[in-house]
Every structure is written in C-alpha cells, then in structure tokens.
C-alpha cells in the first residue's frame, strides 16, 4: 500500500473516531479528486489528506497549493450539484499525517480555506 | 497573537506614521498582506521568511495577516521588511510586545537576516519624530544620515539577532552618536577648483559675485574657448557655506533620490548639477511612476548649470519656467501631488550662434541669418526674461593668459569673503521675514527695502522705455541693484548700482561688440 493510501486510511479512521460519518472515499470526477467526504452535525466536510515521512520539504499542509485548493473547490461544488444537496453547511478541512518511524502524528485543520 | 509595531511611509518629501499589525490565526500556512503594499513590499514576504529562518527562529506555519494601517495610502519601499519581521517575531513571542512599543523600525532584510540600508531614511526619521516617536531602529549604514535629525535616539542594527538581544536586554545596541558633534560642516572646505585659475574675465567674476550674493540666475554668452564652463564650475567655491537647516533640506532630497551611500551619508557642500543637454523632462524636473526629484531639485540651494543652453530640447527648457518662479516643483499624479523644493541658482552657458563667433572681430561668423535665427529662437523670451543677469564672456587676451602671475587674479576666497559680507547684510535686513536673499524678495518687500532715489528713478524710467523691459525684468533689475548695493556696503540703492544692474539686461549687447 502506498504512503498516500495508508495516510488516507489513517485519516478516515481518525475522523470516524471523532464522530464523523464518512460518505465517500476518493470521490473522482473529471475535475479532480477529493480524498474523503464526511458529515458531522449537518455539515458536509470535504477533506484533503496530506501525508509525509519527513519535514525536509516543509509541513504536509504546505503542499496544498493554490491550484490544489481550486481543484478541491470545484470538485466539491460538483459533488453538491450531482447529489442535489441543498440547505446544508459545507466546509473544507485538511488532515496532515506525519510518519516518524512507527508513530504517526495527525493534525486536523478545520475550515482550512 | 496580535502585535503592533511602527514604521513610516513616504509621500514625496513628507512621511506618515504606519502601524504594522500582525495577526496569527490557525489555518493553512499563508501570509496575507493588506493595506496597499506595492510590489517591493509584497516581495518582502519571501525575504522575511528566509531571514527569520536563517536567524534561527521558527517561521510560524499559521495563517498570518499583516495589515499596514492607514490602509488607504500606498506603501512603497524596502524599509517595510524590518517592521514586518519584527511584528512576526513579536507575534510568535520571540520579542516581548511591551519592549517594542516606543520604537519605530526601518530597514531592508537580506536572506541571511542582515539589515541593509534603505533610501529615504532621513525624511522617514523626521516624519517619525513629528509623530512623537523618539526611538528608532535603523540600518547601521543609514545612521550617519539620520543623525542630522536632532532629538531622536537612533539604534543602528546590523541583523535580526542583534535586535532580539537588544529587546531581551541580554546585549543592548549602543545609541548612535556622531563622532564629531558638528560633523556636518566643520570640515574645512578644500576645493580643487579656484577662480585664480581663470585668467582675466574680471567682469564675469564680478557678475558671479553678484549672482552668489543675491541668489540670482545668470546666462553666460560667448565664443568657444572663452572659459564659460570653467567659470561656471567654480561658482560653488564662492557661495556661502550651507547652514544646518540647508544641509538637512538638501540631504532629504538626496535621501529620497537614493543618492546617499555609506561613503556620502549627508550633503554638506552646495550641490552643483550639470545635466547633459540630452536630458529628458522627467530627469530634469523630476517624475516617474513613483515621483522622484529631478536634477532641478537635486540642485536645491546650489547651482544648476546648463551648458550649451540652446542645445537642450526646447520643451524641456520650457518646463523650467514655473519651477524657477516658484522655487517648487509640483508633480501631479492620480495618487496625489508631490512637491519638491528647487531654490536653485540657474547658470546657463551658450554660444551666440551655431559657429560661435557671431559678433567677433577676430573671427568671421560663418552662419547664415536663418541659422542664427533658428539658434536664438530655441530659447524663448519668457525663459530669458527669468534669467536675471545676461553676461557676455569675451575671449581671453594674450597678456592675461600668459604674462600675468596667477596671484594677480582675484581668487575664490576673496570673492567668497565679499559674498558672505553681502549675504550677512541681507540676513540682518530680512530677519523679520521668511526670506534669505534678494532674489526671493516679493513685490511688497521690494517697496519696503528697495527704495530708489530721484536720479535712479529717472534712470529706470528711461531704461524701461529704451530697453523695452517687461514688468518682471524691471523688478529683477531692482533686485540686482539691491544686491550690488549690498556688495558695495551701501545702505541705499544708488544710480551707479542701477546702472550696473541695467548693463546685465541689455539685450544682444554681446553679439554686437565682443572681441578685441
């Protein structure tokens, strides 16, 4: 299993433990992909997961670039339209996972952008 | 955490207090800068990040918002690097907020964390002082320049680490003190050029003395090789020393123009600017997207020498009209008006015709009438009218050039003594008014201080008709007479002074009768 998939697995478990209901994993359309779509307290949450083994290239969240944000926004809008979701709050979160040997550090930024 | 530190922003010569507010909020790492920063200020982001990391501190991986308040004025210049970096260091707790609250910061950062010199430090410090800030952290290379301002504490910093130690009180930065308290003009003037090098030409030297004593402009006209440029270049050696206030004012302009360096931190000698005749309007008057002082303002309180006067672009010369009259250049932009002072002594040099020998008895002129006409028409009447003294420069004769001793010619120091005496008289006379010398006299002051006796009145009356003087030329002649009277140590203007003054306004006299 690749590092990215491993990280997404960890993130999904983490969110479920926090009480989120995971609706979709790796939702794809031609505009791009969203790693996890979850729901909590009548809020639809789109989650981008970033996984890293070291900090040599900066924090995981620093890899969420302008274009990446744009893609996520577009896919999220598409998902909302496709499923005809109406009056419900939405937000975009980032979950960072940093592997240090066997340990994994997780940081969850709500409403990241 | 939220923090506030202070700095300034420049608008022409004026500066305004700016508070830099830095807020850290949870979120994806991002630095947003608001408050109309220009491109240099926006680029500061990258320099600050590297400088903070390379100085050994953490750059916060948070959502950072930097606000430059007041938010409606444009912020320009690289001096915003330091205050923004300090704001960040206060926000992450490296520096305590109470420690910086009395300070203002200016400085540019390098990626290593070193603080580099900036342009416009002097006007910024003056502005900050006016806003009630008396402790200023600035680049070490700007300290000498800023020390012209009295009553502020200057802390020259070399890098970010030094600053942090200063506010930690582990190792404080020493207050900047001038090595020599009167350093701005105590050094003896040592000019390479001297008027004793100029052979003969005593009547031109006399005119130079009048100009320097009263702050009048002059036009030197003569054939090639008669020494026009040589005479003009020596004018600063005759002018009186600059006072502290004058140094401050001139240094301010040079500071904004980015013409000061570590080797030349302040201007203590009168400026002498001699732009080439290909100069553009923006370079002469001042201008640019962000208006900068031009040659005219750089010559403030000194000499603007325009050699080969008719070779200048006509439009460029015409731009001089209004600034010469008002002693201020105002550049209008959609973002506001920018004013720079330009109290200059205009010295122009010209040949009488394209070949240069019109009117010479020694040398035939080879120009056609139309050539001469075209050459003369390049300088407009209104502009000539604004130049007080028109001085013919005759060719030097053999005896003057080779047979007389150098010591027999009047030297700069002799001339300066006379000029300073005349200036002193004027300063005493105009003590109650806001002017310094005769050229600045307004018409109401002229009535008060330039009374003509009956004979002089008579002389002026006939000259006005025969020389067809304009109203402006008339008042200029009277101002020149006042200066001549001052040079002659005379309380009142006498007919002989008026006569000499009139001799400098006779149109085309030189073209008829110069040459031996």
TrEMBL record, chain A:
Gene3D superfamilies: 3.40.1350.10. GO terms for molecular function: nucleic acid binding. Pfam families: UPF0102 (PF02021). NCBIfam families: PRK12497.1-3, PRK12497.3-3. Belongs to the UPF0102 family. This is UPF0102 protein EQM06_08235.
